[in-house]
Amino acid sequence: MSSGNALALERESGFRVLNRKIALSSDLPTQFIDVTEQIEALVRESGIENGIAIAFSSHTTAGVAINEAEPLLLEDMTRQLECFASREADYQHDDLSIRTVNLEPNERKNGHAHCQRLFIGASESIPIVAGRLQMGRWQRVFFVELDGPRPRHLVVQLIGA
Predict the structure, then answer these.
(1) CB within 8 Å of 103: residues ≥ 6 apart
(2) Nearest-CA neighbor of 66 among 81, 77, 80?
(3) Which end of the chain lies in a sparser environment, N or C, as judged by fewer CB atoms within 10 Å?
């Protein structure tokens, strides 16, 4: 669909798309940052009554997950990620004497974070009904930092009418 057709559809049906980036800053090497309230605010701003909210991490060492915001559980999940891919293990990705691809100045040793990211998705989709995110009682949306501390951003797209 061309952008002209999308605009016509938006005008005629009330269909809307809202795209935003939420700036974040992690304080810890691994951190579950609750972004639920920021996404809820964007839903209110959008005026979308029925549709979908998509929260997406465009980082390869951070993801998005829905889970419970219980502090001991968050500690358990952080420890479990470390069990999956320990910071102390050896990763070829971190051996800059053999790695030749995607190198940056001041490259971090973050092979563990890339491997941990295998267990956490890049995005979550949440239905919007009657202008509200349709989440369970204990569910929260987390941006999951695996290679902090550092500045990050979360991409949010809202689609609906």
Answers:
(1) 96
(2) 77
(3) N
The rounded distance, in Å, linking the Cα atoms of 128 and 17 is 13
Other beta carbons within 10 angstroms of residue 55's beta carbon come to 25
Mean pLDDT on 20-27: 98
Bridge partners, 158 (sequence order): 18, 53
Confidence of residue 11 (pLDDT cuts 50, 70, 90): low
Of 136, 126, 161, 138, nearest to 46 by C-alpha is: 161
pLDDT at res. 14: 85
Which of 2.40.37.10, 2.60.120.460, 3.90.1210.10, 3.10.450.50 would CATH assign to domain 17-160? 2.60.120.460
Contacting residues for 141 by C-beta, under 8 A, at least 6 apart: 34, 35, 36, 39, 55, 64, 65, 66, 124, 126, 135
Please tell me whether the overall predicted TM-score, pTM, comes out greater than 0.85 for this model. Answer: yes
For residue range 81-116, list pLDDT tens digits in order. 999 999 999 999 999 999 999 998 989 999 999 999
Query: How far is Cα 159 from Cα 44, in angstroms, rounded to an integer?
Result: 13
